[in-house]
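Treating backbone geometry as a discrete language has practical consequences that deserve illustration. Part of our work consisted of pairing the sequence of a single chain with a tokenised description of its backbone. What the numbers capture is local backbone geometry rather than side-chain detail. For completeness, the protein is quoted in full, as a sequence line and a line of structure tokens:
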Amino acid sequence: QVQLVESGGGLVQPGGSLRLSCAASGMIFSAYGMSWYRQAPGKQRELVAQISSGSGGSRYYADSVKGRFTIFRDNAKSTLYLQMNNLRPEDTGVYYCVRYTGNYWGNGTLVTISS
């Protein structure tokens, strides 16, 4: 049974940083590309970042987060990360870890950017 469990969300002031984690189980983590999505209040879910399988040499970022967010993975720990810097109020939302092959989603972690 594939399980994805996000953590690391919270309340941060604008300009601050957070690191989200996603612990994966029930799968050979290194074999799969992974993504982070987010859903802001009243808006549709959007793709934030994506990383390829294996060493993760191929990455994609939404224009809105380029230069501020970094997606990376630790295959030995079966964990996906999203380092978020220079956070803005518009980054507020629930962040989801996704294995896009098979469409597996975690339950999400809430990120709130507010002063």
